[in-house]
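Dear H.,

Thanks for agreeing to be a second pair of eyes. The structure we're designing against is below in token form, covering all 326 positions.
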């Protein structure tokens, strides 16, 4: 089944004294009504861990995840549980971690233990309902001491731990270098390979305050100049070739995140989105937009020139919705 939908941030960024947000039932109803069947939750492990004690989770926090799973199951929406921040690593502010996932045994043991804990908690829940997305967007090769060999060994260890408890749980691995680099060395395992839909980034991230790489590059599509390439549908198709090669080996590929920040002109964004969806449908790949409501989303993004209509209580970009609908 091709799974399409959105990322949600109910449990993404821990703050002292703040509980996770409850499931947004109105948003999930919107997904179900309009034919979407996928919700990826980007989690921060600190919601269930105190003072970097990875091996003694705080049980009440898991009740929120139970509720998310049930809310999605009730609406025939697949729920992907992703650790956006894991012991020892996050693509956002990794320096606040006590340990380094790629070099410290404490963090690696903690990651394995926490996924084994989820495996025990949800054993018996159908794979149609729930998947585990292990590590969000691993870093560039060589960064923080990460190598392909270290990453492969860690993934194999986590997968073995989960499968010893729940052999049938669908497991997702993100590509390296922010989700862009495929891992064919893991294609012998029955895993879902997750990549991203952000290229070319001067289009998807134009004007972003947290990433300056767009500076000096105009948000042009088709055309522009990024990675010494002019981008169009053919360039996108070539970009995804390593992932198509993995799919040719019988593995599922999914676009775990994609989206366009609201500073890109609307006509440019729509042309780019149209080519992405066209290719992904041709490949038979599902996807999850980052995010649902917000500057990358389909609702309330604030992109100048977008055609907005009120639908089911939301200010919806109707042209983008039509492109996205299954």
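And this is the sequence the design step returned. I haven't edited it by hand at all.
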């Amino acid at each position: 089944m091709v799974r399409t939908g959105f990322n949600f941030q109910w449990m993404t960024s821990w703050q002292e004294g703040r509980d996770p947000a409850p499931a947004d039932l109105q948003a999930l109803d919107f997904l179900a009504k309009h034919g979407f069947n996928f919700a990826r939750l980007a989690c921060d492990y600190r919601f269930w861990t105190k003072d970097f004690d990875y091996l003694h989770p705080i049980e009440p926090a898991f009740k929120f995840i139970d509720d998310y799973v049930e809310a999605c199951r009730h609406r025939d929406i697949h729920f992907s549980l992703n650790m956006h921040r894991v012991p020892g690593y996050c693509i956002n502010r990794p320096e606040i971690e006590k340990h380094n996932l790629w070099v410290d045994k404490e963090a690696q043991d903690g990651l394995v233990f926490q996924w084994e804990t989820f495996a025990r908690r949800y054993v018996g829940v159908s794979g149609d309902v729930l998947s585990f997305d292990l590590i969000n967007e691993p870093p560039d090769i060589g960064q923080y001491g990460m190598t392909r060999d270290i990453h492969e060994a860690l993934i194999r260890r986590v997968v073995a731990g989960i499968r010893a408890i729940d052999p049938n749980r669908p497991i997702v691995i993100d590509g390296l270098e922010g989700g862009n680099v495929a891992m064919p060395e893991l294609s012998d395992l029955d895993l879902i390979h997750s990549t991203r839909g952000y290229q070319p980034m001067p289009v998807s991230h134009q004007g972003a305050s947290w990433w300056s790489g767009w500076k000096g590059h105009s948000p042009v599509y088709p055309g522009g100049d990024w990675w010494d390439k002019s981008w169009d549908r053919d360039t996108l198709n070539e970009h995804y070739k390593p992932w198509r090669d993995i799919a040719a080996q019988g593995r599922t590929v999914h676009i775990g995140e994609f989206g366009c920040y609201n500073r890109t002109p609307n006509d440019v964004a729509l042309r780019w989105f149209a080519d992405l969806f066209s290719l992904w449908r041709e490949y038979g790949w599902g996807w999850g937009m980052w995010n649902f409501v917000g500057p990358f989303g389909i609702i309330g993004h604030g992109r100048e020139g977008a055609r907005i209509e009120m639908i089911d209580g939301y200010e919806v970009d109707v042209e983008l919705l039509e492109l996205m609908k299954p």
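Two observations from my side: The longest helix spans residues 105-122. The chain has ten helices and 13 strands.

Warmly,
E.
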